[in-house]
Amino acid sequence: MKFFVLTIFPQIIECYAQYGIIKQAIKKSVLDLKVIDIRRYADKGKVDDTAYGGLPGMVIKPEPVFSAYKEIIQKHSKPYTIIPQPWGKRLTQEDFERLSKKDSIAVICGRYEGLDERVSTLADEELSLGDFVLSGGEVFALALLEGIVRLLPGVLTEPESLLSDSFRRWMGYPVYTRPPEYEGMKVPEVLLSGNHKLIEMWKLWHAIERTLKYRPDLIPQDLTPTEKHILESIKKGMSFEEWITKR
């Protein structure tokens, strides 16, 4: 995948790309990340100006953004283009999965009081991280980049871990590692039992329990008989140990 980020602060993206999963994706040639400094396309490096009609703060000018974008099209092809905006659709895991199928994506990062409205004509889609305001679009671009890249084939060393991701169906279940006891806190015995079927049931129980507690709005409609039974049992105040004994 080609992933373009148009920004006036390319160092933010370039620094992040030196670590973790982004670095691995680039190293494996799964990701071709191109960070484009909008300032290079601005007259004397001036990328912003005051707004017509009066507005505190500055607005990113259209000319350097359009010039940078046109060069992308000339050298490569037109990418699927996203502009982060407060009013955009809130980004979800389903969006990551959908966008991971694209051949190329471009994110145009605003700054200060935003982008000249004419830049919005370049967007195929406007998205948002949530109902809050940040100083620029770089954090959005990084979140989008990481969320997409980890879904690309060949990036994760253990791709089966994607199957247990939160938001695929249920929220994540509790996870533990060594030591089996730390400051009086013990790893649940079921996880040490070696009973794989029981462990899978424990994971499902706690994933459903966590979803019910923190994000009941995400409970699926198409519950399996087992999921429905677990959900009803949790609502009755039953513990996993009680449920598995009576099952």
From TrEMBL:
Name under which the protein is recorded: tRNA (guanine-N(1)-)-methyltransferase
Q: Which residues form a coiled coil?
A: none
Provide the Gene Ontology terms for cellular component: cytosol
Report the residue ranges that make up the tRNA methyltransferase TRMD/TRM10-type domain in this protein.
1-220
Q: Which InterPro entries match?
A: Alpha/beta_knot_MTases, tRNA_m1G_MeTrfase_C_sf, tRNA_m1G_MeTrfase_TrmD, tRNA_m1G_MTases_N, tRNA_MeTrfase_TRMD/TRM10
Q: Name one Pfam family in it.
A: tRNA_m1G_MT
EC number(s) on record? 2.1.1.228
TM segments? none
Location(s) in or outside the cell: Cytoplasm
Keywords associated with the record = Cytoplasm, Methyltransferase, S-adenosyl-L-methionine, Transferase, tRNA processing
Its function?
Specifically methylates guanosine-37 in various tRNAs.
Q: Where does S-adenosyl-L-methionine bind?
A: G110, L129, G130, D131, F132, V133, L134
User: Main localisation, per the record?
Assistant: cytoplasm
Return the similarity comment: Belongs to the RNA methyltransferase TrmD family.
Query: Which reaction(s) does its UniProt entry say it catalyses?
Result: guanosine(37) in tRNA + S-adenosyl-L-methionine = N(1)-methylguanosine(37) in tRNA + S-adenosyl-L-homocysteine + H(+)
Q: What class of enzyme is it?
A: transferase
Example GO BP: tRNA N1-guanine methylation
> ATP-binding as a keyword?
no
- Any one GO molecular-function label of the UniProt entry: tRNA (guanine(37)-N1)-methyltransferase activity
Query: What subunit structure does UniProt give?
Result: Homodimer.
